[in-house]
């Protein structure tokens, strides 16, 4: 755009052009689109980088630390496709855990994903679908937070990119990328927050509330625990904001109540059956059964660095998580200090309106940090005996189904927004309502951001080889041996540590979804159901004698002398499961330890006699009498 000199006004003959307001607005939209595309592309490249070890061979590679959960989510994707094409109940099935079945509403059904990606599952199999969703989850979460920060929360494009990419690839996201399709699907959370903000910013509460209800239903399907945490966090933030700006609340009350009512109607209609199954349906449970004193966050973990990061790559990580998938904080001391200093500086240099937001964010982060520590404070890996506030609420309904350490997941987006505002204040581009000047030299703040964020740059996830699904199942040859409604008994019996049987069934489900045919059933399986202490849940059913025997053999490699009592227990178990055949593959996959296939074959031969070799499996037909 040219600027005319006052001494030489433009004439019609001049070549200079002054932008009209419409042209200026169009230029702004073009710059925004370019920034959006750049952030989206960066997020996708980073997501592929993180999941690259799996992309090298999706069908034969699995999470290096959590292949059991990966098998479970692949099964959910195949079952969802099967339910969609066969008109089956997507939230309850008798294909697992014969004869009792599995309530998927109290598990993580991911029905929305299973339905949306059903064509890909049918065409290419659940392993590829799993990897596509995992990659898009990471990229989509980063972009969704960028979008929220730039469109609704006062950050300019540069600041929003910094904050959004941090949220999408925060230590907790990388940790849960070890096979958790639910916890990595945090792209829906910014959409829910944006819809809540619109309830108070524009006069369309019925429409915005209805869309909020739809998003709540989607989130419930993918990650009900994350939805619960989000509702709690928004409640804490809103309470602080209302107390700080009481004079504005009355004018906002009517549209908010109308919007929430509209959302409740939509969500209630969509979730009526899932909620009934969850709280009153068969095979439900109350509480996870996991010990909150094990699955609580170590206070020192907030200043530690994560394993899959540049800091971890040079050995600066610490072993303070319950397992590699639960590094829910691990921000590193530099970032922790930067965020605290940033909050103080922003508070001192901004207006009252922004101070309400800063106070709400600070209190929300603080509340969830403290609650994530569980019922008893843990420091440097040791329980201290110091009681914590979570002990007061951890036994309440719904709260007892959440792992305390995961409450730390709420802290990461708060940190991301503070980073977005700091980067906005430092950048020299226009945009964003958080217009403050930071004290001290600009280079010092840039250096602080670099020192805080560079060590957290993620490194690729670990992966391991896994045997392909036997051709006996992949080709459908199993149909020659299993009657309609019959059960295939895998050796060993499927659970979270020995996922082969569920992988075999997932392949059969995907094939049956495309061909319109039936599929075999499985005893036990990897799922959450009743049977834990005091009415809580447990992983899988209470094991029957044969399952316990075979798991011990798989884990130890020791083949015990088989007794008549063992044979009688096996016959009873096979009747209980309505078994048609018993199958042992050539390669038994153990999710966390080596397995011993020859010992399993020896024990099963002692139990049922010599097996048949059919295609690429060892098979025993179950006697009819």
List keywords for this structure.
12 strands; 53% helix; 22 helices; 4-stranded mixed β-sheet; 625 residues; alpha+beta
Explain what the structure shows:
- This protein has 625 residues and is α+β, with helices and mostly antiparallel strands.
- It has helices spanning 21-50, 52-55, 67-86, 111-116, 118-124, 126-151, 157-168, 171-176, 188-201, 205-244, 246-280, 310-313, 333-349, 352-372, 390-393, 411-426, 442-453, 471-474, 500-515, 545-556, 564-577, 597-608; strands spanning 61-63, 92-93, 102-103, 376-379, 382-387, 463-465, 487-490, 528-530, 537-539, 579-585, 612-614, 617-621.
- A four-stranded mixed beta sheet has the order 7-10-12-11.
- A hairpin with an 8-residue loop joins β2 (92-93) and β3 (102-103).
- α3 crosses α5 and α7 packs antiparallel against α16.
- The longest helix is centred in the middle third of the chain and has 40 residues, at 205-244.
- Residues 42-410 form the DUF6311 domain.
- This is Glycosyl transferase.
- GO terms for molecular function: transferase activity.
- The chain crosses the membrane at residues 37-55, 104-123, 130-148, 154-174, 212-244, 256-276, 329-347, 356-373, 406-423, 443-463.
- Keywords: Membrane, Transferase, Transmembrane, Transmembrane helix.
